[in-house]
Amino acid sequence: MKKIMALCVIFLILPAFAQDKLTEEQAQLELAEVNQQLAEAEAALAELESQVEALRAEVGDMQATRDELVAKRDALQEEWKICQYGRYKVVEGDWLSKIASMRKVYHDGAQWPMIYEANKDKISNPNLIYPGWVLLIPYLDDYSVVPGDCLWLIASYLSIYSNAKRWPEIFEANKDKISDPDMIYPRQVFVIPHD
Question: Distance between CA atoms of 152 and 185, rounded to whole angstroms?
Fold first, then answer.
């Protein structure tokens, strides 16, 4: 039985060893073909590596351009914000805390530093302002209602929108506090949206 098994194994393995052997010439041809394929693959790889380097350089340029554009956008947003500020023309007898305490400005003289900071390019000494100067009045992000206010009056203030027609923006942003736009009460604090 063991002999039969051994013969079966030999007959199964023998055909694998009995395959045609390559001649030296065929082996040389196959080796040359493999070497050529390897050379072509290396050339293709070198070309791809140069393309990758070119793309990396392009990505670097694009990132630099993006950073430049982001900086420009930020500068333009700041400029736009300043363009939206209210404007006040100084008259004889004005000083910063007097302007800040005006109803149409902040109702609070202690807010004068906001005006000073927004106008540092013009004001070197906060105690010296001159008639005829036009000062920027930075807007408020929230507003506390005082007696006599209504939404269109609030919207007209220099520290809000300087435009009474924009009162619906205040109403829309504060619907949780205002059920009727004609009924607002002192000491209510409204969010003032600035887009």
Answer: 14
φ, ψ at 142 (rounded to 5°)? -145, 160
Domain ranges of the chain: 28-84, 87-191
Length of the chain equals 195
Query: pLDDT tens per residue, the chain (195 residues)?
Result: 555 555 545 555 555 554 557 788 888 888 888 888 888 888 888 899 989 999 999 999 999 999 999 999 888 877 776 666 889 999 999 999 999 999 999 999 999 999 999 999 999 999 999 999 999 999 899 999 999 999 999 999 999 998 999 999 999 999 999 999 999 999 999 999 987
Query: What's this model's pTM, rounded to 2 decimal places?
Result: 0.57
DSSP letter (8 states) at residue 165: G
Q: Which residues have CB under 8 Å from 133's CB, separation 6+?
A: 89, 90, 122
